[in-house]
Amino acid sequence: MMKRRDIIKSFTLLPIAGGVLGGVLPSKSLFAAPRSPKRDLFKELGVTPLINAGVTMTFLSGSLMMPEVLEAINSTAHDFANMYELQDKVGAKIAEMLHCEAAMVTSGASCAMVLGTAAAITGTDEEKIRQIPNLPEPRPEVIMQKSHRYLFDQAVSTTGAKIVEVEGPADMDRAINGNTVMALFFNAAEKSSITHEEFLTVAKRHQIPTFIDAAADVPPVENLFKFQKMGFDLITFSGGKMIRGPQSAGLLFGRKDLIEAARLNYSPNEAPIGRPMKVNKEEMFGMYAALMSYLERDHQKEWQDWLDRTKRIKSRIETISGVKGETYIEPGPANAFPSLHVTWDQEKVKITPQDLLAALRNGTPGIVANVVDKGADKVLSVGVVLLKPEQVEVVARRLKEVLQQAI
């Protein structure tokens, strides 16, 4: 009986067979799904479709894929591919687009953190790749600023690594030792005791690989290139946020030797730590199409469209006495785009921001927005960047209706 490993290796011996089969089989694949009447799966399953007037949150299914991403997914779903070859070819094209040494598609930025950390621990050592996360003592260590600790750094400890907290460049310098394998910088942290430049200087002095998590940090598009120019060895961005690729896809790119090691720790290899985090071929093609689309987009035009949306909603709601709208631009680095902050005189419009939020969510259609702190006050924040064009008027109308009902 032929083992799976032998089957995988044999793929490289069959380039001609694929061409012959392609010529023999009818153009419409035998495995293609039969045509059927269009089904409303939301309705069929009782799932409520929502309008996202917030930000790119995973629990809200990230963002909506661009048409060219859906086309890439649909056009590649009907044939098989060797996943090693596909990751090679897609990675090479993405690296070319991002002007870096190497790149790969991962199942989200969190997966990229697992793989990047694993790469720093194992390199290409087959024994370590088999053992991780149950490596013999002492445990590998990853340096992080204390103020940079966050929920997602669990991806680092998944590899068996110990996170060592530091404050300030001198403390970081002292903390690095023979067990240190990597230094992680969380780009969206509210405070930093070590600047990017200081962080890189200390790490390079000790020849420690550096990794920056910039998952939600586009726009601006320049951030895709900024951190590698600074000197970070590994960078990750989410594919399912403002790049608008598949939600379960992400990018890991940077130093060639580390990307090679990350791939050895990943699917389709049969038993490394990243095997359960596999990304399918359609998502790889989709992520490639999404990045190409994002880089080719007219970002100035898109930004102006977002500003116009805030003005459009603002003009509708300010017809109500006591209601004010203000275009607010998040300074970033994460979610750095325009939204509309809405305030009102609660003596005239007798509803709290939290109750308004609930009314939008529970209405028809259901609209998800946010309430944010602005000094001592709570403010309704209406996001516009994830709205489909026709939804801008829907949000404006529904917001005005709820406010008017509270008079």
How would you explain this protein's 3D organization?
There is one protein chain. This protein has about 400 residues and is an alpha/beta fold. The protein has two domains: about 80-295, 3-Layer(aba) Sandwich (Aspartate Aminotransferase, domain 2); about 300-405, Alpha-Beta Complex (Aspartate Aminotransferase, domain 1). The chain is built from 16 helices and 13 strands. It has helices at about 5-10, 15-25, 40-45, 65-75, 85-100, 110-120, 125-130, 155, 170-175, 195-205, 225-230, 255-265, 280-295, 300-315, 355-360, 390-405, and strands at about 50, 100-105, 140-145, 160-165, 180-185, 210-215, 235-240, 250-255, 325-330, 340-345, 365-370, 370-375, 375-385. The chain has a seven-stranded mixed β-sheet with strand order 2-8-7-6-5-3-4, sandwiched between helices. Strands 9-10-13-12 form a four-stranded antiparallel β-sheet. Strand 6 (about 210-215), helix 11 (about 225-230) and strand 7 form a beta-alpha-beta unit. The longest helix has 19 residues, at about 300-315. Residues about 1-30 have low confidence and may be disordered.
| H/E element sequence | HHHEHHEHHEHEHEHEHEEHHHEEHEEEH
Number of strands: 13
Return residue spans where pLDDT drops below 50 for at least 5 consecutive residues: 1-32
Percent of sequence in beta strands: 15-25%
Q: Structural class given helices, strands, pairing?
A: alpha/beta
CATH architecture title of the largest domain: 3-Layer(aba) Sandwich
**Fraction of residues in helix:** 40-55%
Overall mean confidence score, pLDDT: 91
Number of domains: 2
Major sheet characteristics = 7 strands, mixed
CATH superfamily membership of the largest domain, which one? Type I PLP-dependent aspartate aminotransferase-like (Major domain)
**How are strands sequenced across the largest beta sheet?**
2-8-7-6-5-3-4
CATH topology of the largest domain: Aspartate Aminotransferase, domain 2
CATH class of the largest domain: Alpha Beta
User: Which oligomeric form is depicted?
Assistant: single chain
Q: Give the overall silhouette.
A: globular
Count of discrete alpha- or pi-helical segments spanning 4 or more residues: 16
Rounded to an integer, what's the Rg over CA atoms? Answer: 24 Å
